[in-house]
Write a structure and sequence with these properties.
Order of helices and strands: HEEEEEEEEEEE
Number of helices: 1
Largest sheet: 9 strands, antiparallel
CATH topology: Porin
Strand content: over 45%
Number of domains: 1
CATH architecture: Beta Barrel
Shape: elongated
Distance between the termini: 47 Å
Number of strands: 11
Radius of gyration: 17 Å
Length: 163
């Protein structure tokens, strides 16, 4: 089941890449996959030039084979690292996580990561690690992390007022 979902997500991303020549910066909403702990579907919504909200619905292979959902507010630093005029912002954030298993878990995440934006296609690749402070069912620490790719859907252009 998880393999079919991953294959379907990759197929959708490839089809979208072929049909849209926009860059990742042109779209505000991205959807893709993340592989790691947990592995699943990733989404990101840019709120401004440096801030975004991201979320994941995924399967954890480590934590009692649970479904994990998390959402984070992210702040990006575009001027820390660059590679041959490419935009590679570092980011940090804060968010929450819920793990649905035999014994549910709730906690706070502090993600750190980097994102690479492609110039010719509306994609980004990201790498992230996140320490997690779990407070239910017991107070403990955990980590999550992964590598992923997201396709950014083009935003509609504003009309010139001649409707």
């Amino acid at each position: 089941m998880m393999r079919r979902t991953s294959i379907l997500a990759v197929a959708i991303i490839v089809i979208c890449m072929i049909t849209s020549p926009a860059s990742a910066q042109d779209g505000k909403f991205g959807l893709g996959v993340v592989i790691g702990e947990p592995t699943g579907i990733s989404a990101k919504l840019w709120l401004g030039e440096t801030s975004a909200i991201d979320g994941v619905v995924a399967w954890s292979f480590v934590n009692n084979s649970s479904i994990t959902i998390h959402a984070d507010y992210l702040f990006h630093f575009f001027d820390v690292f660059s590679l041959e005029e490419k935009r590679i912002p570092l980011y940090v954030g804060i968010g929450g996580t819920i793990s649905i298993a035999t014994e549910p878990a709730i906690g706070v995440r502090i993600p750190f990561g980097a994102t690479y934006f492609f110039d010719s296609v509306p994609l980004d690749i990201f790498l992230e690690v996140a320490p997690i402070f779990l407070f239910l069912p017991a107070t403990t620490f955990d980590f999550s992390g992964g590598i992923g790719v997201r396709y950014y859907f083009p935003t509609k252009k504003k009309s010139d007022g001649n409707r």
